[in-house]
């Protein structure tokens, strides 16, 4: 099985192996067969094998059929509309099914909106977390953002143009108005644009209506000042983690990292709080 990366905008970015794999495949599974046809025409190649659709609506039903073909020795090439299959696109189910059946899975590396946006954002790239699309409902979106508000890694999101203003406003509310970010629009395409600035400023800009494919890169949370977290707050955070099912040792370690203090300080605060109750 071959996961084939496709251009995220400029067809000239197509990896050289892509045309060869599409031509030689027994089956080409495409998220959109019409877009595949435009791509193959641009590459000057005609798939010799069978072309089938494989998208969100039929992914669950078609996975078994494709897995059977793989197990029977067919070379199946999976492509999505842009970028690497299975990354916020169909593909994960088929990869899991192929692995379960002992079928070799490989990839044709290609352009990535995540890595491209990171590279041009101007934000730290040594550690990052890809969060994909946020929930559409405002309450669920805020909850998800709060879960990573203290994460010190750079965060990367995909977002639809009609929701980007609400998403940036929610990020400014949860992460802070001055947290730096970059909104990358139409990467590698004719109207590519990268807007950099504080989240509140970007939210005001996005309110004017933004179009195109969008990737948002957000600076990670600043390292906490050890003096900023009171012992009572350390105890509260440990208790919250324990209530959620973590063992005390792991909870203390996690809170220490989160607060930027030695584990011993958190342990001592927990012990002191326990003695104060007795």
Summarize the structure.
This protein has helices at 16-24, 33-43, 59-71, 92-100, 113-121, 138-147, 164-175, 199-206, 231-243, 248-259, 263-277; strands at residues 2-4, 27-30, 50-53, 76-79, 106-108, 128-133, 154-159, 180-185, 193-198, 214-218. The chain is of the alpha/beta class and 278 residues long. The termini are far apart.
Based on CA atoms alone, the radius of gyration comes out at 23 Å
Strand content: 15-25%
Biggest sheet strand line-up: 3-2-4-1-5
Taking the alpha carbons of the first and last residues, their distance comes to 63 Å
Question: Mind summarizing the main beta sheet?
Answer: 5 strands, parallel
For the residues shown, what is the average pLDDT? 93
Low-confidence stretches: none
Helix percentage range:
40-55%
SSE order, one letter for each helix or strand? EHEHEHEHEHEHEHEEHEHHH
- Number of helical segments with 4 or more residues: 11
- Summing up helix and strand content along with how strands pair, one would put the structural category as alpha/beta
Please outline the helices and strands.
Elements: E1 2-4, H1 16-24, E2 27-30, H2 33-43, E3 50-53, H3 59-71, E4 76-79, H4 92-100, E5 106-108, H5 113-121, E6 128-133, H6 138-147, E7 154-159, H7 164-175, E8 180-185, E9 193-198, H8 199-206, E10 214-218, H9 231-243, H10 248-259, H11 263-277
Parallel strand pairs: 1-4, 1-5, 2-3, 2-4, 6-7
Antiparallel strand pairs: 7-10, 8-9, 8-10
Helix pairs in contact: 3-4, 6-7, 7-8, 9-10, 9-11, 10-11
